[in-house]
Amino acid sequence: MTLSPDKVIPSVVALEACEHFQKQTYRNRCLIYGSEGPQRIQVPIIHDGHGSGIPIREVRVDYSTPWLLRAERAIDAAYDSSAYFYYYRDDFFAILESRPEKLWDLNLALLRYFLDKTGIRAEIRLTETFTEEGRVDIHPKRSNTILRDLQLEKPYFQVFSPKHGFLPNLSILDLLFNEGPESLLYLKKL
């Protein structure tokens, strides 16, 4: 990973493209801030008997369930009153509604979208062989207190923070829908 000239945001990011799919990870789920607190959005995948042995780039999204409609309704309900939701909503939902066959393609399209909309200038490179070197693995089943431990956790406005307080570790869509073009400034302050 190399840093951009301002030494804040990585300018080259390597994505592990040669690993095998790991169940119950952020590869097919994220957290948003709903009216009752954290809410999980999950993209179901087609289980073809390989279990965790399928290459990450071959995992197929299961569109046979109404998960997409449920996800869009949950996101609408959570961010309808956020400052920038309607500015980004249609383009974001268009990615979901394009229904990429592979989870990898969906995730890559969403990653590129969020990099573009937050103003992060990063070159995405895909690994050609599996490597553990330099790997950062954040898992939903493990506590993630990295920012808090480093005293870098900084609240930003969230729609339901008056009800539940600031919630860290949410999807980047929470930051984008609430802070809009100020998202990059927020990230640089970290």
What's the SSE blueprint?
Blueprint: E1 12-15, E2 29-34, E3 37-42, H1 67-79, H2 85-97, H3 103-118, E4 123-126, H4 146-149, H5 161-164, H6 172-179, H7 183-189
Parallel strand pairs: 1-4
Antiparallel strand pairs: 2-3
Helix pairs in contact: 1-2, 2-3
Structural class: alpha+beta
Strand content range: 5-15%
Give the distance, in angstroms, between the N- and C-terminal Cα atoms: 18 Å
Q: How many H/I helical runs?
A: 7
> How many domain regions?
1
How many beta-strand segments?
A: 4
Explain what this protein looks like in three dimensions.
By secondary structure, the chain is of the alpha+beta class. The protein has one domain (12-189). It has helices spanning 67-79, 85-97, 103-118, 146-149, 161-164, 172-179, 183-189; strands at residues 12-15, 29-34, 37-42, 123-126. The longest helix is centred in the middle third of the chain and has 16 residues, at 103-118.
